[in-house]
Amino acid sequence: MNEILTMLLTVRKPEKAKKVHSNNNNDDNDKSSGGNSGKLLIDETVAPADIKYPTDLDLLNEAREKSKKLIDKLHDPVSGKKKPRTYREIARKEYLAITKRKNKPAKKIRKAMKKQTGYLKRNINHIKRLLKS
Q1: For 13-16, which contacts have Cβ atoms below 8 Å and span 24 or more sequence positions?
Q2: CB 80 within 8 Å of CB 67
Q3: Which of 12, 19, 52, 81 has the fewest beta carbons closer than 10 A?
Q4: What is the C-alpha separation between 35 and 8, in angstroms, rounded?
Q5: How many Cβ atoms from other residues are within 10 Å of residue 95's Cβ?
Q6: What confidence tens digit (pLDDT) does each residue in 48-89 have?
């Protein structure tokens, strides 16, 4: 946190920094010294807005989608073999059915997680098989 703070302070122009004048008379606050006076207030609760809070179901779905893309890359259509079944549409539909709900009962979340885990396990087995051949 200190490294980030020092980077921000070196990038930020001094005239835009917020200052609060203190009541004590230190050498820093002496106007004859020519330096800045007061204290800089910095909010420590700043977090990037683009980071999504991960839930287990979201992580499983993301892993399933990445494994699906990996299967697409590993599959060789020239070999004449069929592409492995990944149940893409069904898995996506089941995931969206839970995430779009306003109320998400724990029982339905557990059931959806079990299904997503099954789809992911199937995809991982297909990936292992494709890597061997």
Answers
A1: none
A2: no
A3: 52
A4: 19
A5: 21
A6: 666 666 678 999 999 999 999 999 999 888 788 888 888 999
Joined together, the tokens standing for residue 35 give: 């330096």
CA distance 22 to 10: 23
Query: What are the CA-CA distances from residue 9 to residues 30, 42, 57, 68, 129 (Å)?
Result: 22, 10, 39, 44, 53
Write the DSSP symbol of residue 51: P
Residue 62 CB neighbours (<10 A): 15
Q: Which of 76, 75, 88 is nearest to 126 (CA)?
A: 75
CB 28 within 8 A of CB 7: no
Instruction: Quote the pTM value.
Output: 0.59
